[in-house]
Amino acid sequence: MQKKNVNNTIDNPAREQRIPVTVLSSKPQSSKIHIRQQKGDFQKIRTGMNSLLVALFFLLPFISYEERQAILFDLNQQQFFFFGTTLWPQDFTILAWVFITAAFLLFFITVFWGRVWCGYLCPQTAWTFIYVWVETRIEGNRNKRFALDKAPWSGDKLKKRLLKHYVWGAVALLTGCGFIAYFVPARELYIDIFSFGASFWVTTWVWFFAICTYLNAGWMREQMCLHCCPYARFQSVMFDSNTKTVTYDAARGENRGPRKRNQALNSANLLAANLEASSTVNAILGDCVDCNLCVEVCPTGIDIRNGLQYECIDCGACVDACNQTMDKFGYQRNLIGYTSENALSGKAEPFYESYKFIGYGIAALLMLTVIVADIYSRSNIELNVIRDRQSLYRETNDATIENSYTLKIRNKTQQTRFYRVYVSGNSGYRLVGQANLKIEPGEQLDYPVTVIATPELLAGARNEITFTIAEQHNYAQASQESSFFAPI
Ligand code: SF4
Ligand code: SF4
């Protein structure tokens, strides 16, 4: 990367010597953060990704698959429907694998691209920017919002504040509905909530998540990232010298200082200008014009020029703001940019030498393999065989031995299925009663069966017996072994 701006450097040969200069201070930062809205390439990407995330969040529950809500955590039935697949509580290991895989993928991306998750995909960031957008539309830009904060209460201020909180509340209520729509049928939920027809618990949970959204995105905002999010605390462990994260090029930017746009910068007039500002100034300026825009657009209110900070969520707003300033002054872009420590110091960036990168990548691949194996090995039939606890066996009048069992058979699909029951393990076993069964979707059938055997064909007092339930017109089947008892 070229680090020197041509315009600036040619006119300022003394800059090469990096003579210290008194840096004009940044504007004092208010304790309250009002984010200045920023346009730019990274903001387009962020807005696009946030919009996609929000759209998916609200629309996914409305997708139907085989006449049922495609994604639904049905807490009443204790089932999770995901398109054609139904997960039961005993299948939830797969959700654990999914979460572990997502964590490794997040670590893997963090090693390479820093906290892009936080800046571009985290719901906290997405909803905060929605709330800031609403605030800007109603109360005006950053300066107007600061002015409104300071202004005494008036009719206009009250109207703006009421309108803002009303819209924030509406967004929060919709978000609460959006979240609960993953747990109860979505189509009825919105109608029930807005017509006050929802049950007590559904209403309570919707309002609970609505209040959480309102407080998080409206009031707490960056405080969640700074004080509540554990990822912010440990993400630096994953960084190495090749991690690309938002960084200020201090070697190029310092010494920072204001100047007039398009002003020819040479050591003579810079020295003169600075001497007016400070008697200790004795050197030339770097590319940072100290416009403070990078601080004003920052959603966490930090000054990235102070170095890498855990508060930075890598949203790129300061990159766009600084590039805008660089363009105005005719300087090279990326004084603040997504770059690595190695790139800044001119070293090579062999990411394949990063053991963390390779390690997290392998771990993520392994976990993906586990998920595929788990899905592949899952059966849509569940069979449990329970022996009759009342008696080990019964001897019948026609000199045969009888054992009784209860078959607990679960149809884990979302369609009615037909099954056939078999017994095996001895040529003398005979199943008494109906062997063909019909089971409704998601239903568990407790089916009592009796097996008869001829004593001469049995090997001893305890014999192995295998029950098999096979789906008709399909290859799916499940088996379980049990014991068949006979007199010694
Ligand atoms: S936006 Fe760029 S030029 Fe302006 S203060 Fe920040 S680093 Fe300096
Ligand atoms: S310093 Fe602030 S604006 Fe810049 S990337 Fe980090 S969080 Fe975003």
From TrEMBL:
Superkingdom field: Bacteria
GO CC, any one term: plasma membrane
Residue spans crossing the bilayer: 47-65, 94-114, 166-184, 190-215, 357-376
Keywords, sorted A to Z: 4Fe-4S, Electron transport, Iron, Iron-sulfur, Membrane, Metal-binding, Transmembrane, Transmembrane helix, Transport
Ranges for domain 4Fe-4S ferredoxin-type: 277-307
Gene3D superfamilies: Immunoglobulins
PROSITE patterns xrefs: 4FE4S_FER_1 (PS00198), 4FE4S_FER_2 (PS51379)
MF (Gene Ontology): 4 iron, 4 sulfur cluster binding; metal ion binding
NCBIfam families membership: ccoG_rdxA_fixG (TIGR02745)
Identification of the protein by name: Cytochrome c oxidase cbb3 type accessory protein FixG
